[in-house]
């Protein structure tokens, strides 16, 4: 005996023998049984979780005297699932914390719920299960949101054009960033940038790509250029003898933008180089010392973009 099955789509004809038909029948029967069992447990659970509903009443009627036992069984099953879920939420939270610290992001204020694995006890009630599930749901939502935030901030950080290119060829530092004795007043003063020795006319390079936002002659900075690199990061190049860019120009990383000079408040030909993050001067060395821990620190000090 053979059954013929016509496959319309491919236009082919297939024949199935009795063994194959039996095989398929067994598979379908198993699927139905599994589905049935799954539905049976799903209905039982619904009834137990929501005893005041119609499903609850139905389940109560079905199991009759066994209600207490069924109830406890279902609560125990749920408790195990809640326990597993809780472990996964904790894992997600610790992953979030680790990512935050690796990305150098500032600690997020509203930390997720208090940790500690909850161990299911013997007499758990449906009410306690409800509240546990509610709190877990809340923590999972918050955790997902935090991870999305971290991901977004990390992406932004990856694309910040950090000023890591040395602005002069011969990077001989004549004065580092920080407190120093001012060469003009002889008093202690904050040096907001880094000074590189050079000869008049030596090229000055953009430390990163960006837009020229200022080209000016300043009484102290002399001929100067400001580049906006985005995300609140600016670099400033001062005391130049010549400037080769205009305000509004887009510049590439490493592009020649000016020439070393001795204009403004300067005691000799040099480049005064500043890195500003949200208007606050940073130690340029942390950016220029490319790669490794130094760059990490520089990235970390930027913190979360606003
Ligand atoms: Zn200086």
UniProtKB/TrEMBL annotation:
Signal sequence coordinates: none
M23ase beta-sheet core domain ranges (all copies): 190-284
Keywords for the protein's UniProt record, in alphabetical order: Hydrolase, Membrane, Protease, Transmembrane, Transmembrane helix
CDD domains registered for this protein in UniProt: M23_peptidase
Annotated transmembrane regions: 21-43
Species per Swiss-Prot/TrEMBL record: Candidatus Symbiobacter mobilis CR
Family annotation (PANTHER family): MUREIN HYDROLASE ACTIVATOR ENVC, PEPTIDASE-RELATED
Keyword Ligase carried by entry: no
Molecular function GO terms recorded: metalloendopeptidase activity
Name the UniProt record assigns to this protein: Membrane protease subunit
InterPro entries (UniProt xref): Cell_wall_metabolism_enzyme, Dup_hybrid_motif, M23ase_b-sheet_dom
One GO process term, biological-process aspect: proteolysis
This protein's record includes keyword Hydrolase: yes
């Amino acid at each position: 005996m053979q059954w013929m099955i016509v496959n319309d789509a491919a236009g082919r004809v297939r024949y199935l023998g009795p063994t194959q038909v039996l095989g398929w029948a067994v598979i379908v029967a198993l699927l139905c049984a599994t589905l049935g069992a799954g539905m049976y447990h799903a209905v039982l659970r619904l009834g137990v979780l929501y005893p005041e509903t119609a499903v609850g009443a139905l389940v109560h009627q079905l199991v009759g005297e066994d209600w207490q036992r069924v109830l406890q069984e279902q609560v125990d099953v749920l408790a195990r699932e809640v326990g597993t879920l809780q472990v996964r939420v904790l894992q997600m939270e610790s992953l979030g914390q680790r990512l935050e610290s690796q990305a150098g992001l500032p600690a997020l204020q509203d930390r997720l719920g208090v940790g500690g694995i909850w161990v299911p006890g013997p007499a758990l009630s449906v009410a306690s299960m409800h509240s546990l599930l509610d709190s877990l749901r809340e923590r999972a939502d918050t955790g997902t949101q935090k991870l999305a935030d971290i991901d977004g901030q990390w992406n932004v950080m990856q694309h910040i054009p950090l000023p890591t290119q040395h602005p002069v060829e011969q990077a001989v530092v004549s004065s580092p960033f920080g407190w120093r004795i001012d060469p003009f007043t002889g008093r202690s003063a904050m040096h907001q940038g880094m000074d590189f020795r050079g000869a008049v006319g030596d090229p000055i390079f953009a430390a990163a790509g960006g837009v020229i936002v200022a080209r000016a002659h300043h009484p102290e900075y002399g001929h100067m250029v400001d580049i906006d690199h985005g995300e609140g990061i600016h670099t400033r190049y001062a005391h130049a003898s010549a400037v080769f860019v205009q305000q509004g120009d887009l510049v590439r990383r490493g592009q020649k933008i000016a020439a070393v000079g001795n204009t403004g408040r300067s005691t000799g030909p040099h480049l005064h180089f500043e890195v500003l993050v949200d208007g606050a001067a940073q130690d340029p060395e942390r950016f220029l010392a490319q790669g490794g821990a130094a760059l990490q620190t520089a990235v970390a000090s930027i913190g979360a973009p606003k």
